[in-house]
Amino acid sequence: MSKSAENKKVPTAKYQVDFGYSKVSITQKQNLVNDVFNSVAPSYDIMNDLMSLGVHRLWKETLLDWMAPRPNQVLADLAGGTGDIALRFVQRGGQFAYIIDINQQMLASGQKRKVMGNYKNKLNWLCGDAQAIPLADNSVDRVTIAFGLRNVPDRTKALKQITRILKPGGRFCCLEFSHVRNQLLSAIYDKWSFDVLPRLGHLIAGDSQSYQYLVESIRQFPSQAELSLMMADAGMSQIKVKTLSGGIAAIHSGWKID
Ligand SMILES: C[S@@+](CC[C@H](N)C(=O)[O-])C[C@H]1O[C@@H](n2cnc3c(N)ncnc32)[C@H](O)[C@@H]1O
Q: Fewer Cβ close by (within 10 Å): the C or N end of the chain?
């Protein structure tokens, strides 16, 4: 590839990315995403249970089953929000977890959870950007991002950062909404997503727009094959995908070999 073609591929602050069905600059997207999570932070956990009918808990357990934490492992959970993944990691015997999120209000909601008090010495809550992770090169054994990558404006940059902080032999797992193939399930899922979710958002969180963004952003997220390629481009190997609930969600796993 010529130098100029390479340069064209490098996203700048003006590079257009999706925000739901709209196109905005990288900076605008981060600001809009921050507005979404500022608005939903106080009701985030309850909304998660309602919107997924509790199924997000099963997906998170599946992620942890696949990761199988060990007592010598340190995790960085990016876009960690209220700490669900990090909590499960240390509960299942992982040594220590960083919860890294760009939104202080999401972190504050998580820190208020009673259960977190039992794991004070095993959790470190950091306000930081997945596109510029505040951790050293080759410093963690595991990296996770659950329902976060979709919200990160420059996903390529975040994936490169993930490879940077992983130790050689370390593993990355991404839990994210994916794409339903079965027509009947897809019709039911669309009805739930477009008709019910924004109304639930209005009723419980007083905010339907944030849940409209959620629904649209899911449809815009890369396919499993595209995300696997992006992980490979970022330097990860042995990429595998587990499809969950007929494609409503998926876990992508990749390793940093050296
Ligand atoms: C849907 S929540 C997921 C929270 C948690 N991982 C979970 O599974 O419940 C998405 C999170 O991504 C965070 N986020 C968005 N952009 C980010 C970025 N550039 N760096 C780090 N976190 C980001 C938001 O603040 C929000 O807390």
A: C
